[in-house]
UniProtKB/TrEMBL annotation:
Ranges in coiled-coil conformation: none
SUPFAM superfamilies (UniProt xref): NAD(P)-binding Rossmann-fold domains
Domain of life per record: Bacteria
Record protein name field: SDR family oxidoreductase
Organism: Curvibacter cyanobacteriorum
InterPro entries in alphabetical order: NAD(P)-bd_dom_sf, SDR, SDR_fam
Family named by the database record: Belongs to the short-chain dehydrogenases/reductases (SDR) family.
Record Gene3D superfamilies: NAD(P)-binding Rossmann-like Domain (3.40.50.720)
Pfam families: adh_short_C2
């Protein structure tokens, strides 16, 4: 299927690895010019080289990398000012930030909450604010926020994430249904369940250290609880993101898409 977005410009945050990389890869393979951002310059450059070397990348698809902290004004300005990029005139924006640490809400002070809100609510809002009106003027725009399955099914030890990401979800629900909906601009959220990424590896190692069980045993136990019987792959996630960014998804906005292998038990 031709997604109809070849030649468009996309900004993908947190794209040096994991789900962000999966999204960037899927878009590049569709002929989209991509600006990728992440904090670590070495990992980001390696990701850019992988994307450029991808045999499925059309020859004209550009990949530009900008290392920096997107939660800061300077970091966002650098993404918009990258030489050869579109400035703020992105056609596609994929927001993505690592989740806040787990813990007990009794231990979180105001600084911890502000940091979580900055990364997982306020930064995506700033990126939306900077790009959405230009999208509306040009008659096309796709914004996809990578949030978490915890928005649908909160996890007690992830209160910082539950709160910040739910705030973003409520904000997006309103903006997606505003006047921009009739101007070719859609906003949707992707709520990943368990995917085979570095974050899963980190949490498995922590769980193994805490319980004394092997990483392999914990992994098998978790996968057994997922109806699909496995973790998801970043490339699968990226394919869903690319479809949401396509011309075929023009009638899909304000939605929370839950790729989790069937783990969420609810009807709605």
């Amino acid at each position: 299927m031709d997604l109809g977005i070849a030649g468009k410009w996309a900004l993908v945050c947190g794209a040096s690895k994991g789900l962000g990389f999966g999204c960037a890869q899927a878009l590049v393979r569709e002929g989209v010019n991509v600006v990728i951002g992440a904090r670590g310059p070495e990992a980001l450059q390696a990701a850019a080289e992988r994307l450029l070397a991808d045999p499925l990348r059309p020859a004209g698809a550009q990949v530009l990398a900008v290392a920096g902290d997107v939660t800061t004004e300077a970091g966002r300005a650098a993404l918009f000012a990258v030489p050869g990029g579109p400035g703020v005139n992105f056609d596609i924006v994929v927001t993505n930030a690592g989740g806040p640490p787990p813990g007990d809400f009794r231990d979180w002070d105001r600084e911890a909450w502000i940091k979580a809100l900055d990364a997982n609510m306020l930064t995506p809002i700033e990126l939306i604010k900077a790009t959405i009106d230009g999208m509306a003027e040009r008659g096309f725009g796709r914004i996809v926020n990578i949030t978490s399955s915890s928005v649908k099914s909160p996890i007690d030890i992830l209160g910082l994430s539950n709160g910040a990401r739910s705030g973003l979800t409520g904000f997006v629900a309103g903006v997606a249904r505003s006047s921009i909906a009739a101007k070719g601009v859609t906003l949707n959220n992707l709520l990943p369940g368990k995917f085979d990424t570095d974050r899963i590896a980190t949490t498995l190692a922590a769980a193994s250290k805490k319980t004394g069980q092997s990483v392999e045993a914990i992994r098998a136990s978790q996968q057994a609880q997922i109806p699909a019987g496995r973790y998801g792959r970043p490339d699968e996630f990226g394919a869903i993101c690319a479809f949401l960014c396509s011309t075929h998804a023009a009638y899909l906005t304000g939605q929370n898409i839950l790729p989790d292998g069937g783990a969420y038990p609810g009807t709605y």
